[in-house]
Amino acid sequence: MALNWGRTRRKTALVRVIAYPFRCSMFTFRFFAVFVTVAVLVFLAVSLLFAFADANDVNSGFPHNAYGSKSPSIRRSVLSFQWDQLKARYDQICKQAEHHRSLALAYASHARKIKLENSKLLRIFTGLSRNYTGLISKYNELLNSGRNLTTDEPVLRLFEKEVKEQTKLMRQVIAEAKESFDSQLKIHKLKDTIFALNEQLAKVKKQGAFSSLIAAKSIPKSLNCLALRLMEERIAHPEKYTNEGNPPQPEIEDPELYHYAIFSDNVIAASVVVNSAVKNTKEPWKHVFHVVTDKMNLAAMQVMFKMGDYSGAHIEVKAVEDYKFLNSSYVPVLKQIESAKLLNFYFENKLENATKDATNMKFRNPKYLSILNHLRFYLPEMYPKLHKILFLDDDIVVQRDLTGLWKINMEGKVNGAVETCFGSFHRYRQYMNFSHPLIRAKFSPKACAWAYGMNFFDLDAWRRQQCTEEYHYWQNLNENRTLWKLGTLPAGLITYYSTTKPLAKHWHVLGLGYNPSISMDEIKNAAVIHYNGNLKPWLDIGITKFRPLWTKYVDYENEFVQSCNFVL
Ligand SMILES: *[C@@H]1O[C@H](CO)[C@@H](O)[C@H](O)[C@H]1NC(C)=O
Ligand SMILES: *[C@@H]1O[C@H](CO)[C@@H](O)[C@H](O)[C@H]1NC(C)=O
Ligand SMILES: *[C@@H]1O[C@H](CO)[C@@H](O)[C@H](O)[C@H]1NC(C)=O
Ligand SMILES: *[C@@H]1O[C@H](CO)[C@@H](O)[C@H](O)[C@H]1NC(C)=O
Ligand SMILES: *[C@@H]1O[C@H](CO)[C@@H](O)[C@H](O)[C@H]1NC(C)=O
Ligand SMILES: *[C@@H]1O[C@H](CO)[C@@H](O)[C@H](O)[C@H]1NC(C)=O
């Protein structure tokens, strides 16, 4: 029993160690990759040690007890086993209460930010969180004051009942609050429109942008929980999930099939993309999904895709680190990430100044630097045998069979994309610095911008026209961020300036992550819908009426999805 305790404690310690990098993300990635590896090794070593100890127990103890009926030692071991079970159950309830407590706090801070019926909702949510705290400490005290779970099982049942009741109440409150949150968002949208006409509202908009940016940056608890549980599963049953020793499936490289590229560190989002694509295609076995993630999420991603049912579709899961050619001597963005200058840029200013400028803050989001985000510029080298590939963001849902895209005549162009300009909006002028002589010489400020998220690439045309070299040329020039400020879109607009083929709008409908007024008809007819913007469907703040279109493809059968409280 002492041994078991030791193991549980070590496990929680490990969980905390791993949980941390999820929050602080890419810029310390290399450091944490080493750290996590070490932590995992230590964990493995420790569990190995205990596995041996357990094996000894079985050899020495169990056979005697199996026949020696009512010896005191067997009674003790049955009781302690029971106690372990009850304690585990107790911890689980505690965790659930803790989870809801943080959720209540998150809602409270959201209510505070958008000044929604100010005091009322704020009071309710802080009250809820306080009640959870109260529940947790009440039962902790009971436990510490000598109540014994084995002899006092009703204590556990009471605890569970109280947490359940509290949670039921909380769900009601959330359901009501979300409606007012959504209408508040419409007001925000209206403010944005006014802003386009009236610059005096600039301040208001900036505050709004900043608060939703904070929300979008924080990875919610369930997502964290899922990644960790999947990773634990991978560590516990390595033999189930490894492909080592097996020859690679020939389909993965078969240019006759339909290939998709999905680059993501979000397990649930990536699985929704693949699920939705598979469910809406007629011949799933002709489709190949190339999922690339980072080293930290590789194990979780492998388990997730091994557990799902994809009707014969082929799925390759790799880590970006597996592509050795992506090193800092070749990839300008990696060189720039590693340069001390940029790190300084990230750390020099204190929060106080950062909050003053939402644009600045946006650039500070490490997401914009993540190499996963820039992989889209290396498709021909990552998939040397393929002629065509469809690039999909992880915040999209596929609603139709997409094979029609492969039949489109690309007319020698490299990138098939949906254009986004209207009137004077979304023109090249808005994405890059036209005061710069090199930009002015090469591009038209009125050129129409297009969207990333669902892009059909002709890889042969790409290789012929040397787009990667073009991209490197400009990305190197932008070292000091004088050509464009942030993200991959300006780099894409520059790279595929004269080699983009506009696609019909219904292929790709955008804005479900920020614009509540997109028409439902347009959404219904779309082949792909895109939750670009900060209000992602997996976040609490996702726009309610658009969420079912996404949750429909969440694999709720998956035991880890269930145990991480995704249904709320
Ligand atoms: C907190 O608990 C008290 C007493 O159990 C209850 O009266 C109150 O309604 C609860 N508050 C919330 C916000 O659930
Ligand atoms: C509870 O009681 C069981 C059986 O009497 C005993 O094995 C266990 O150690 C006790 N646990 C605590 C925390 O007192
Ligand atoms: C970096 O990648 C290039 C090819 O892109 C390769 O020639 C070179 O050897 C790699 N460098 C290292 C250190 O791996
Ligand atoms: C904020 O910026 C100003 C100048 O822009 C600088 O003087 C000040 O030290 C900064 N404050 C912090 C906390 O970094
Ligand atoms: C960026 O700035 C540094 C120093 O300010 C300069 O040495 C370097 O050449 C600049 N890079 C580019 C691409 O202009
Ligand atoms: C735009 O380019 C000009 C010319 O190189 C430069 O002076 C200016 O600082 C750039 N603007 C921004 C916002 O980087």
Automatic annotation (TrEMBL):
Query: Which Gene Ontology MF annotations are present?
Result: polygalacturonate 4-alpha-galacturonosyltransferase activity
Primary location class = Golgi
- What keywords were assigned to this record? Cell wall biogenesis/degradation, Coiled coil, Glycosyltransferase, Golgi apparatus, Membrane, Transferase, Transmembrane, Transmembrane helix
Q: Which Pfam families match?
A: Glyco_transf_8
Annotated membrane topology: Single-pass type II membrane protein
Give the family from UniProt: Belongs to the glycosyltransferase 8 family.
Q: What is this protein called?
A: Hexosyltransferase
| Species whose genome carries this gene | Handroanthus impetiginosus
